Amino acid sequence: MLFQIIYWIIIGLILFGILIFGVSFTQSLINKVPYLPSRKKNVQIMLDQITPSKNSKIYDLGCGDGKILFQIESKFGIPGIGYELSLLPYLISKLKTLLLKYKTKIYFQNLFNANLNNADYIFIYLTPSIIQKVSNKILKECKLNTVIISNTFKVPNLKLIKTIAGTNSTKIYVYKK
Ligand SMILES: C[S@@+](CC[C@H](N)C(=O)[O-])C[C@H]1O[C@@H](n2cnc3c(N)ncnc32)[C@H](O)[C@@H]1O
Question: Which residue, judged by its Cα, is nearest atom 4 of ligand 1?
Fold first, then answer.
């Protein structure tokens, strides 16, 4: 009997894992941007580009499992704001928030719903398929001098401040509105 219960719990967990993975994979295809966490060295470089004050508003648009925002909260004590549409990384971010008691807020929402008019820093690691649209949103909503830090992909129409060599020939681009 006990063996049967354990058997069905394991089967249930496997099916649940497959379901979450399948939903997340489908969402990645629909969003046209896969969940690919920034590499450790690139996160370090990106964090080195900011000098926030305690009231700074820091966003990660398409924040994955929240690793950039959580590291910012640990380093500077400033909770950030993230938007993520893919279920698996979103659930991982929620788990981390619960277990490690982060105050960073992560929304299971389309990043195009974010209101960026108070943003001081925006992190992105998005592909060219949506980056033009994100640039338009930044130009329309952000105040002057908002800093935008993009992993790997250039953001059109913003003022480029700095390009830094990242891991595996990637680059980190720092812009200002
Ligand atoms: C390459 S990952 C980067 C994750 C994280 N920013 C990092 O650097 O580790 C891009 C993430 O953006 C999410 N994404 C893509 N389009 C989105 C949208 N319209 N709204 C919210 N999240 C989106 C994807 O689900 C994916 O997790």
Answer: 64
